[in-house]
C-alpha cells in the first residue's frame, strides 16, 4: 500500500481525537444542567457522526427548538470537557507529514475544530489542509464529501487511488471506497475490530500501527 499512497486524509473525531469518550459526558451534562433531560445513550449513538449542528438539533429537539441557544449553552460548559488527542496522534502525524501530504476531513464545524486544536500539542502547521463542515454540502457516507480535498490534491498530481483515508466507522469506509480512495480503519474507538473483520475491511488497532505499514 505505501508505494501507491501519496496523500493521507484523517477523520478528526474518534480517529485523531478522543471525541466520543469525552464529549458524551459533556452532552449528557448539557442535557441535565439546562433541561433536566437524561439523554439516552441510544439517542446519542443514533445521531453520532452526523454534521455538528444537525447532531445537536436532533438530540435536543424534544426539549429545545432554538439551536443557537443549545449551542451557546454547549459553549458555556465546553471548557469542562476539553477534547484530547489519542496518545500516539502527535507522533503519527509528525511521522506521516514528513513523508506524505496529510489533511483532515471532518463533519465538525471550523469553529469547533479550531477551538479544540488550539489547546493540544499536534503538528497542525504541517498539515496540507483541514476540510470542515463549511467546505461542502455533503457528508459521509456520501462520497462527494471528499470532492474539496480531491480538488486540493489534484494540482499536486495526486489521483484518487493515491489517497488514503483513515477513519473509525463504516460511514468513513463507505464514503472513501465509493469516492475511489483507499481506506484503513482504526478499530475499537467506535467500531470493534470484530466488525471490521466481518466486513473484511483493513484496520489497525492503534494509530501508531500506521507507521509500520506506511
TrEMBL record:
Q: What is its EC number?
A: 3.1.3.18
> Which pathway does the protein contribute to?
Organic acid metabolism; glycolate biosynthesis; glycolate from 2-phosphoglycolate: step 1/1
Q: Sorted alphabetically, which Pfam families does this protein's record hold?
A: HAD_2
* UniProt xrefs under SUPFAM superfamilies: HAD-like (SSF56784)
Catalytic activity as recorded in UniProt:
2-phosphoglycolate + H2O = glycolate + phosphate
- InterPro entries (UniProt xref): HAD-like_hydrolase_sf, HAD-like_sf, HAD_2, HAD_sf
- Family assignment? Belongs to the HAD-like hydrolase superfamily. CbbY/CbbZ/Gph/YieH family.
The protein in question is named phosphoglycolate phosphatase
- From which lineage does this chain's organism come? Bacteria, Pseudomonadati, Bacteroidota, Cytophagia, Cytophagales
Amino acid at each position: 500500500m505505501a508505494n501507491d499512497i501519496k496523500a493521507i486524509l484523517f477523520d478528526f473525531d474518534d480517529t485523531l481525537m478522543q471525541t466520543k469518550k469525552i464529549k458524551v459526558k459533556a452532552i449528557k451534562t448539557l442535557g441535565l444542567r439546562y433541561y433536566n433531560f437524561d439523554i439516552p445513550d441510544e439517542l446519542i449513538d443514533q445521531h453520532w457522526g452526523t454534521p455538528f449542528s444537525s447532531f445537536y438539533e436532533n438530540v435536543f429537539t424534544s426539549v429545545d427548538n432554538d439551536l443557537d441557544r443549545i449551542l451557546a449553552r454547549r459553549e458555556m460548559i465546553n471548557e469542562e470537557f476539553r477534547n484530547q488527542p489519542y496518545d500516539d496522534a502527535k507522533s503519527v502525524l509528525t511521522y506521516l507529514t514528513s513523508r506524505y501530504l496529510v489533511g483532515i476531513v471532518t463533519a465538525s464545524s471550523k469553529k469547533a475544530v479550531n477551538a479544540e486544536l488550539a489547546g493540544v500539542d499536534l503538528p497542525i502547521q504541517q498539515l496540507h489542509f483541514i476540510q470542515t463542515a463549511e467546505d461542502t454540502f455533503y457528508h459521509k457516507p456520501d462520497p462527494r464529501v471528499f470532492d474539496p480535498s480531491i480538488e486540493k490534491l489534484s494540482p499536486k498530481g495526486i489521483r484518487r487511488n493515491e489517497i488514503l483515508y483513515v477513519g473509525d466507522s463504516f460511514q468513513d469506509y463507505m464514503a472513501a471506497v465509493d469516492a475511489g480512495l483507499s481506506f484503513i480503519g482504526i478499530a475499537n474507538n467506535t467500531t470493534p475490530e470484530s466488525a471490521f473483520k466481518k466486513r473484511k475491511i483493513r484496520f489497525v488497532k492503534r494509530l501508531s500501527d500506521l507507521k509500520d505499514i506506511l
